[in-house]
Amino acid sequence: MLKNIKTILKSVREFKKPTILCLIFIIGEVVMEVLIPFITSYLVNRIKAGENLGGILSTGILMVLAALASLAFGVLAGRHSAYASAGLARNLRHDMYVRIQDFSFANIDKFSSSSLVTRMTTDITNVQNSYMMMIRIAVRAPMMFIFAIAMGIIMGGRLATTFLVIIPVLGFGLFMIGRLAMPAFRSVFRKYDKLNESIEENVRGMRVVKGFAREDHETGKFNTASDDIRRDFTKAERIVGLNGPIMQMCLYFNLTFVLFVGSQMIIKSRGVEIDVGQISAMITYGFQILMSLMMINMIYIMLTMSVESIKRIAEVLREDPTITNPAEPVTEMTDGSIEFRDVSFRYSAAAKRDSLHDINIKIESGMTVGVLGGTGSGKTTLIQLIPRLYDVTEGEVLVGGRSVTDYDLKFLRDNVSVVLQKNELFSGTIKENLMWGNENATDEQIHDAARLACADEFINSFPDGYDTHIEQGGTNVSGGQKQRLCIARALLKAPKILILDDSTSAVDTHTDALIRKGFKEFIPETTKIIIAQRVASVMDSDLILIMDGGRLVASGKHDELLESSDIYREIYEQQTRGGDENEQ
Amino acid sequence: MSSNRGRRGGASPKDLKEASGSIGRALKMYFKYFPVLTPVIIVCILTNAIVNAIPSTFIQKVIAVIEQYWEAGDWDSAAPKIIGYLTILVGLYILALSLSVLQSQLLAYMTQKFLHNFRRDMFSTMQRLPIRYFDTHKHGYIMSHYTNDIDTLRQLVSMALPSLLQAAVTLVTVFCIMNYYSIWLTLVLVAGVVAMAVVSGKIGGGSAKYFVRQQQAVAATEGYVQEMMNGQKVVKVFNHEQKGIEEFNKLNDELCLDSSKANAYANILGPIVNNIGNILYVLLATVGGILLLTHVPNISFSRMALDISILVPFLNMAKQFMGQINQLTMQVNAVVMAGAGAKRIFALVDEPAEADEGYVTLTKAKKNEAGEYVETSDSDGVWAWRHPHQAEGTVTFVPVEGDVVLTDVDFEYVEGKQVLYDVSVFAEPGQKVAFVGATGAGKTTITNLINRFYDIADGKIRYDGINVNKIKKKDLRRSLGLVLQDTNLFTGTVMDNIRYGRLDATDEECRDAARLAGADDFIERLPEGYNTPLTNNGSNLSQGQRQLIAIARAAVADPPVMILDEATSSIDTRTEKIVQRGMDKLMEDRTVFVIAHRLSTVMDSDVIMVLDHGRIIERGSHEKLLAEKGTYYQLYTGAFELE
């Protein structure tokens, strides 16, 4: 907990100054606020004493000045606290974003994209609000508490004994309520989250609900859960509801006590010990003390509420990237040859089984290699090791005769270009998207790459051509078009190795073949690795790898595999059966 | 994203008017739920507020006593009077406290009960809404009714309304008491309050403006973060990190600036209002002092002359008065927001439920001696349609066989945008009918019409010779099994999920269904077998495994007709082979409608319909269609892109 807070406070940096200024202004404000009842009591006493207008006015002006000072301090503190907390939020967002950019695929998998988004938005907003409350209240409440007690004792003398009653009563009351209510709230919030999840599940699965005519069943389930929450919530809120009455009780006690003891003191001392002015001041101080206790209580609640957010942000900030640049990075690559030496891989240390087991492959530069296998057979895992998206658990991957861990990361990934299976386009024009591959690409180069990916034709069919705007996630182009744009983008890197991870699944077979033909003709030097579902996409490769259950179970050319691999033959026959029948 | 909602904006008169209608309705419901407790709690709040306003008069009385005796120092004479007043005060306090405790406990109970009832109404209404509603509303939007909107109602009934009521009553009471003492001073106070209102209105306006800007900046930043986080792997593959940081910094700085300004406005309101209050206090004291000195005749309802015993409690009341005004302004926003939330909730609750005029129901029947079907409760009966004929006053029973006929069906989701034209389909009992075609050709639409998720515009659909419009929707759907591409599993055990198909199925029947689907094997290997809990749509299972459970779920329902909509599309060909075995078993002896993207799944169908832009352009068996060398042939040989 403390460690998490420390991690977060590291991001305050240049906003330390406004934070400290805010604290100073708050002190000023509190001093004034405590002074005002003091001056007021003088004012009241002077009026009571029937002093002339001059005396009243001079005290009145003093008080107006104090109020103006308090106002100025308050405004300054308010501005600085807003600035400091917005600044902290800014720095946190920045630090998180930068940190995430250093994350490896393994780091990203660990958090998941959607959770990273929540951490960078909702959680930071929570921390921003807490920080603002904190720097305003954390000093204010205790200061107010101490000053009000001090002034009360100075002014009221014996009357201050009232504090001996109200402070412990309210303090103890708040403490007990907090202790009883917090766990109740925590558990009910968890249930509440669950209820919302189940509503979401219901909405998402509405076709199933209606398809099975389960509306009443769902309503029944929901009512039980909702009523359960109602009961728990009521219990928790009933406890917290006592906050108000306890505060009220203390205020009442204070007033009655001050009136009774105060009037006695005034009359017995004939207005010497204290006077009417002090009585009203003591009521105000009592109120201030009780309020500051409530505020201290609020800090505690705010903190416990944002503990989760703090933890979740600190987790990201403290996460170490699992893949980093070597000390002496190599920025030269002889050719596009690839070798896997006794490679095993598991996604996490906790995983029960290897995702890849004992893989040995040699691929010569310029080869076209096809990879086949079912879901979960390890195809994607295999190719992700080449540009070091993940690091091997055992063994070694070599590119151009050198271990991939020797290369500069950026250099390696520029030369090993992957078209990911779950690919993304970004909002912006087609041209901007393609230029991710090479930000200095000329129009000529862009058109060449698009042509090679068979994307040129459909891009030109759009009214805006290469300036056509792509929506977030690429939702305004079809699946096949999106895949071809992604291939073009990868080609613009002019890589030594090009990897397509099931990147033509939505493209028709004719275009698919054209793309492969283009590769052969125009980028013969580049090593090409193609993962596919369709046998036709890999049939004429120089080498075909068959993966099953994380193992390389067969490799060779089409003809060899038809002879030697049952899996290959099975897939081949399944996919070409109809065609054969037709030809007969 | 929940960001662009302008949650803290200032309240315009239009907002107020729209909000008040919905709030009125919410309050009516509140009263309906608690016809006895509502008056009780109102009495509590009223009494409490009045009791809280009264002490000032006792202070006045006590100070008057002090005035009378202090110069003489005669405590013994003063004591009985003071003690007398204080005793009454303590009595009042005890009353106020008990009411206050009662109020807090009642409020906790009533608030939660109210919210529960509201949630319940929303949810049960939602279950009755047609699929169209869910197809045309974003899930996030529907969800926000249960989270944000309900929360605004909670704020309203648990905080805003009680404190508004309390503040208003206190204001009126205090105002009366003040006038009772001195109208002069009250006038000064009113003038001050007007000034306060003007200033806080100005600041509030500025604050609202910047909060809107902040919301926009938040939305922009969130949008960027979301896009980049989703594409983070692509960012890495293309070494795009540095450029991303630069763009992000721009958005981030803007957000920081707007957020800082918006919060600054909100933060300074408190000190300003507070200190205007202090200055007003001085003003009152000074004016009071002057009045005392110059002996200006006091105008008041009490006809008391102005003296220190009035001035001191008056000053205290002035503080109280301004505090309550502050309370009022703070709650206005909450009320407006609650009004908007209530309006959105009522929009959902008022949504017309799915209409159902069907009267033909599903029942068990068996043949009697005369060879006619009659209703039975025996388990060996067959499923039959119970068809009452109102004209003759008779009831006939038609055994359910799964004979589905669509004749010349037209359909449009949105008026003017027809998606199906003259579609006719004949599915005899036990036949497998497949639909192929590009996305948007109308395949899923046809199945949406058979189970009446949507109703046809023109044409006829008959099920075992009965017009589907006459069949009660629930019974119709119970006779149609459904396996969709997106398998929606529910939180609960594997067993619970299978039993979803038929709630009264025994454990053994569920196991049988799982065995039939070929799911038994992997389920047994799960950590807790059939009792393994599934969460988050079965995220701990593979896509293929989820699909197998969905098949088992359909199997346990044992319906005469099955609809398989892209049930194997997101599974690779090798896994599909395993799932296919389960599917084949499931399809035996049933009428089956299959929609598939992958042609290998539909090849062995009795009839294949090729759809294009809402029309059936080819129909026939696989062999026949290939021989025709038409669209199906092109699709099959891969010369066509399906999407």
Write a concise synopsis of the structure shown.
The complex is a heterodimer of chains A (584) and B (643). Chain A has 584 residues and is α/β, with parallel strands linked by helices.
Description:
The complex is a heterodimer of chains A (584) and B (643). Chain A has helices at 2-9, 16-48, 53-101, 105-111, 113-156, 161-204, 206-211, 215-240, 243-269, 276-318, 379-384, 409-415, 430-434, 443-452, 456-461, 479-491, 509-522, 535-538, 558-564, 566-583, and strands at residues 338-345, 356-363, 368-372, 394-399, 402-403, 416-419, 428-429, 469-470, 497-501, 527-531, 543-548, 551-556. Chain A is of the alpha/beta class and 584 residues long. The longest helix of chain A has 49 residues, at 53-101. In chain A, 47% of the residues are buried. The model of chain A is unreliable at 578-584 (pLDDT under 50). Chain B contains 19 helices and 16 strands. The two termini of chain B are 29 Å apart. The interface between A and B is large, with 159 and 157 residues.
Number of strands of chain B: 16
Total helical segments of chain A: 20
Q: How many beta-strand segments of chain A?
A: 12
Please estimate the helix content of chain A: 55-70%
**Chain pair with largest interface:** A-B, 159 and 157 residues
The CATH topology of the largest domain in chain A, please?
ABC transporter transmembrane region fold
Multimerization status? heterodimer
| Total of domains of chain B | 3
Cα distance spanning the termini of chain A: 74 Å
Tell me roughly what share of residues is in helical segments of chain B. Answer: 55-70%
Mean pLDDT of chain B: 84
CATH topology of the largest domain in chain B: ABC transporter transmembrane region fold
| Rg from alpha-carbon coordinates of chain A | 36 Å
Label the overall shape of chain A.
elongated
Residue fraction in strands of chain B:
5-15%
Which helices and strands occur, and which strands form pairs?
The complex is a heterodimer of chains A (584) and B (643).
Chain A: H1 2-9, H2 16-48, H3 53-101, H4 105-111, H5 113-156, H6 161-204, H7 206-211, H8 215-240, H9 243-269, H10 276-318, E1 338-345, E2 356-363, E3 368-372, H11 379-384, E4 394-399, E5 402-403, H12 409-415, E6 416-419, E7 428-429, H13 430-434, H14 443-452, H15 456-461, E8 469-470, H16 479-491, E9 497-501, H17 509-522, E10 527-531, H18 535-538, E11 543-548, E12 551-556, H19 558-564, H20 566-583
Parallel strand pairs in A: 3-10, 3-11, 6-9, 9-10
Antiparallel strand pairs in A: 1-2, 1-4, 4-5, 7-8, 11-12
Helix pairs in contact in A: 1-10, 2-3, 2-5, 2-10, 3-5, 5-10, 6-8, 6-9, 6-10, 9-10, 14-16, 19-20
Chain B: H1 13-33, H2 37-53, H3 55-69, H4 75-128, H5 131-136, H6 139-181, H7 183-230, H8 232-237, H9 241-294, H10 308-349, E1 361-367, E2 373-375, E3 382-389, E4 394-399, E5 404-414, E6 417-427, E7 432-437, H11 443-450, E8 458-463, E9 466-467, H12 473-478, E10 480-484, E11 492-493, H13 494-499, H14 507-517, H15 520-525, E12 533-534, H16 543-557, E13 561-565, H17 573-587, E14 591-595, E15 607-612, E16 615-620, H18 622-628, H19 631-636
Parallel strand pairs in B: 7-14, 7-15, 10-13, 13-14
Antiparallel strand pairs in B: 1-2, 1-3, 3-4, 5-6, 5-8, 8-9, 11-12, 15-16
Helix pairs in contact in B: 1-10, 2-4, 2-6, 3-4, 3-10, 4-6, 6-7, 6-10, 7-9, 9-10, 14-16, 16-17
